[in-house]
Design goal:
With about 120 residues, the chain is mostly helical. The protein is built from 3 helices and no strands. The protein has 2 domains: about 35 residues; about 80 residues. It starts with a helix and ends with a helix.
């Protein structure tokens, strides 16, 4: 009976240590990657947010401006301002999504290249 309890404690302890070791390994890997990407500072993130904001705002404002021009020169039942504002917003959101996707792919490509180099060095 005591032998079974000791065996159970040993299995539980080894599982806990294994889980702890894998968690620590993941955190260390994350910190090393963050240190390697130190060139991407807070300013890089703020610049990216500004870029994304402008990539949405400019098409929206252009759409609203064209809509205002059409509504003032060719009045009608429908509001071209609202329709083109929404169209500009949709184009801007697509543009921002495309830009973020492109940056994400570039980051993953750099990380994959570094991982390949690390495996070659070992």
């Amino acid at each position: 009976m005591a032998n079974n309890i000791d065996k159970h404690k040993l299995e539980t302890t080894s599982k806990t240590q294994s889980t702890l070791a894998s968690t620590v390994g993941i955190k260390v890997t994350r910190k090393i990657k963050a240190r390697d990407n130190s060139h991407q500072s807070v300013w890089f993130g703020l610049g990216m947010m500004g870029l994304i904001g402008w990539s949405v705002a400019i098409p929206t404002l252009i759409g609203a401006s064209i809509g205002l021009y059409i509504d003032s020169h060719y009045p009608g039942e429908r509001s071209w301002t609202l329709a083109l504002l929404v169209a500009g917003l949709a184009i801007g959101c697509f543009n921002a999504w495309h830009w973020v996707e492109k940056e994400d792919m570039a980051i993953h490509d750099v990380n994959q290249e570094k991982n390949k180099e690390d495996h070659i060095d070992e």
